[in-house]
Amino acid sequence: MFWFAVVAVLLATLYKILRFLYFKWRGKKFVQIGIQKRKERDLLIEKFSLPQINIPNERKEEIIKSDVCELREMLLQGKVTSEQLTIIFIGRALEKGKDLNLLSEINFEEAIKTAKEYDLKFLQKNKDIEKPLFGIPMTIKDVFDIKGLDSTIGMGCNCNKPKKEDGYLVKLLKEKGAIIFAKTNVPQASMSMETYNTIWGRGLNPWNKDRSVGGSSGGEAAMVRISATPIGIGSDVGGSIRTPSSFCGVLGFMPTAKRVTTNGH
User: Looking at 151, 216, 217, 227, which residue is catalytic?
Assistant: First the structure.
């Protein structure tokens, strides 16, 4: 019995050592995958050429300071096109958001293409222009699935697994005419009040880079703060919209539980 107990203890110890080494190796592997993922995203941004638009600086300032309802009026009155709006906000995201580590996945080229298609519908007075978000560019928290993009949630194990279809909330937004041009940074596994992960880095507060943007919808709150998106979608269980909104100085609204579907989240 004595030797049996000794062997059992040795085997249990060996199992724990091997398990520790395995997960340590696995963790390093996923960190490297995440680093490569960011390099690929950065290369996409480097290759992306932001189209030039002929709009006076005063009008650009008016646009980035306008809320969604005001932007809708501009679109309906023909004062601006959806393509111009999309390019302006993508430009803000590149100018401000990348430096603050607020972006995760990007969808710039498809967003501009969609905006051009929507502008044709405006000219044709297609009934789709009556949709409440028609032609409005926006961003969305990384936890929501978008067809063709990863939902990494800041985790290497979720890299290089593009979604086969849009999550339900994304479908609803697109049905209402929204143009989603990027996803935004979150804590690893979206399980912290601090937006940091080993893929996209630490989200920096636009008021002071030494301060936190909060979490878990930190990237989204800061994007709204710097006017890199006119509106954003986050999610909240224990403060994940309210905390970063407070840290960044923007309005964040948490709807009643289960009012917004988590299907595709």
Answer: 216
